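User: Before I run my own analysis I want an independent prediction to cross-check against. Here's the chain; please return only the structure tokens and, at the end, one sentence I can use as a sanity check.
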Amino acid sequence: MKRTIAALLCLIMVFGAAGCSIVDPTVLTINGTTADLPEYNYYLAMLKMQVTQSVSADQLDIYWDTEKDGKTTFEILKDKALTEMTNMRIVSEKAKELGITMESQDSQMVSQYKRQMLGQTSEETFYKETNTNQKAFDNIIRMMLQRTALLQQLMMDENSGFKVSEDSIKKTFNEEYWKAKHILIKTVDDSNNPLSEEQQKAAQEKAKSILERAKNGEDFDALMNEFSEDPGSKSQPDGYIFTAGEMVAEFEDATKSLEPNQISDLVKTSYGYHIIKRLPLSVETDQEKYDEMKENIYNAAVTKELDRQIEEWKKSMTIEVNQSVVDKITKDQI
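Assistant: Structure tokens:
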């Protein structure tokens, strides 16, 4: 009889108030506040969604298993999800420390934000597809609202040390953005499948011929309009303006290595052969483009400054990660 009672007590501890739902394992604890697996699954699902928008379904398994620095892409994705979850929780703890709890916030705001995030997807479908639940999702929304309120408070407080000025935005545009035009001769078809070896060789020879003409002083724009196989060039006749991570690495590195108005040698990427001409870029010469991009640069600067603050805040917090829970997640589960 005693054993039966003890067993029942154990069951009561394991099963929650919902009656039959098993308690979700804890992934993260910060200053005694826990975050469980469904919350982590949300971040993992959002990152996976970004990947599946750029990697075809038949290449996904290969992509997940690709290794870099001793880790598979899937393991790197899990680490990134854990970092995003941890950072959001650190912000939440700091917000609570400053009295920003959102507990008294009108639930209508949470519901409105939820509707915006779900779009046309039902809650039931969303939870199923992301392996999360209503409790985790509502917590994440409240933390997002906390983050916004915290940022507003920090930016209004002159003593917070949180500063993103107009001058710093201009400096970022001048020093961390680049402008370039290019001529692309493709080595892939319209579905990004590689052309035959013979076709790729012909593309290389064609690109070499165009490069020679460009280096000999022919009008770059005329050559670009006649030969470039990049459909985006037509919508960007004045050239691409980009920052780190927005172009394939080979294109970015080649552009950064050029002086303004200098033309590159052939640059090979997964798309084909590029002939790149770097263009001058500054707030003074591209005021209209700067005005268009200023808000995005500002938002990126705020995020960067917040990341710096998070690194400082975490030094005074007790953070414990249940890595074994994360390690057990396989690519087949997402």
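Sanity check: Residues 287-313 form the longest helix (27 residues).
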